[in-house]
Amino acid sequence: MGRLLGLALAVTALAWGVPVRAQSSTGDKAAAEALFDEAKRLLDAEDYAQACAKLEESQGIDPGIGTMLYLGECYERLGRTASAWAIFREAASAAEAAGQGERAAAGKRRAAALEGKLTKLKLVVAPENDIEGFELVRGADAVHKALWGVPVPVDPGEHVVEAKAPGRKPWKGRVEAVGEAAVATLEVPPLQAAEGSRAGPAPAPTPGAATSERAEPPAGEAGVQSSAADVAPTGQRLWGWVLGGVGVAGLTAGAFLGLDAASTDERADGFCLDGRCERQGADLNEEARDTAVLANIAYVAGGLALGAGVFLLVTAPSEEQPRQAWRIVPSLGPKSAGASVSGAF
């Protein structure tokens, strides 16, 4: 029984981890391509601000590793070195996960070239501000406590930093971060008590003291408790149903991905002539191959999970019958495939 469940859990993990690529409509892909082409034209015209904006929109509509690399190039030309460094690293990670070695190497190479040129900002927060409810924001980004006093790569230019806390006057500061490999420092002073407030240092928690709250049922309503006597044995039969549901979900995902791969391959033919393909055609061919690989993985994992589920059900002891009704519903989402199980545990 232990070996059977071990095998079942391994197959379940494999099937549940099959990613399903988010699908974009034909109209969305066409819009993303139009924005990408316009961004390339603007890059050639050295209108980097508009080019970066178009690439950001294209990436938002139909994400792609190639678009990310172009966006990193655009950020670098615009002087946004930290943004370029971050997107090159992100593109390298995505390409590595997708098995695109050349693009992964290109992203790593471009990020490494910027490493020594990054401008950094260090925010030194007064210890008195380490109180409950204190918030520190740079631009639109929250600065977590772990980053206090840590030089963080930022795009060169002026940065606005704001701090606030309950019962305290808000504070705003500005700092100019410029220069390659330069580190700008901004000190965040202790926040002053707001008018009419008696805010003081946050009281230290009593060592070893711990409190917990437990919601009690409203008057007139009986609380629901569970005990071993209320729960029927689950065991091998339950695992069989779970694996069966996962298997159906895996096969469904495989079919869905297979159809998508075939459709993408057909669209790629429109950008290819006599064995030579435009950028769009090459990208679509690569996308079709990646999707086909995922489809095969989903088919294999789904088949294994379904087979394991049937085996567990067939070999389960006949006296092991759950007293509660179980329901297994295969689910297929934009980024995952699996099955939901409802019932009593």
User: Assembly type of the shown chains?
Assistant: single chain
* Percent of residues in beta strands: 15-25%
Radius of gyration, in angstroms, nearest whole number: 28 Å
Task: Identify the overall geometry.
Answer: flat
Structure class: alpha+beta
On the 0 to 100 scale, the average pLDDT is 78
Low-confidence region ranges = 3-22, 202-233, 320-325
Count every helix, treating DSSP H or I runs of 4 or more residues as helices: 8
Note the run of SSEs as H and E: HHHHHHEEEEEEEHEEHEE
Kindly, what is the distance between the CA atoms of the first and last residues, rounded to a whole number of angstroms? 19 Å
Number of strands: 11
Give the biggest beta sheet: 4 strands, antiparallel
State the helical fraction: 40-55%
> What spatial order of strands do you see in the largest sheet?
3-2-5-6
The figure for the number of domains is 3
Could you please describe the fold and organization of this structure?
The protein has helices at residues 2-16, 26-44, 48-61, 65-78, 81-97, 101-115, 235-269, 279-315; strands at 119-125, 135-138, 141-142, 152-154, 157-164, 171-177, 183-188, 272-273, 276-277, 327-332, 337-342. By secondary structure, the chain is α+β, with helices and mostly antiparallel strands. The strands form four sheets. It has a four-stranded antiparallel sheet with strand order 3-2-5-6, with no helix packed on it. It has a three-stranded mixed sheet with strand order 4-1-7. β5 and β6 (171-177) form a beta hairpin.
